[in-house]
Write a structure and sequence with these properties.
This protein has one domain. Helices cover 87% and strands 0% of the residues. The protein contains 4 helices and no strands. The model has no long low-confidence stretch (mean pLDDT 86).
Length: 99
Amino acid sequence: MSKPYYEQYETLMKKIHEPFQAIAELNIKTLQGLSMVKPQDFAGIKEPAELLQKNLEVALANGQKALDYMQQTFDILEKTMLSISREAVKKPETGAKKA
C-alpha cells in the first residue's frame, strides 16, 4: 500500500481519536464535580424534612450537571460529525476510488 494511503489513514485516526479524548476528559471533569451529602451534614440534621431538603438540593445540583454534561457531549459529537461530513463532501472521489 502506498504512503498517501497511510497518511490518510493516520489523519482519519487522529480525527476519530479527538472526540473520544474530549469525552473522556469531560467524563472525568463531570464525575469530579458531582455533589453529595457529606457526613458532616448529617450531624446537624434534627428533622427528617432537613434530610429530605439536603438530598433534594444535591439531586437538583447533580441533575443540572448531568444536563450540562449531555449538552457538552452532544456539542463534541456534533462538531465531529460536521467535520467528517464536510470532508466527505470535499473529497467524494477518494472514497469512490477505494470502494
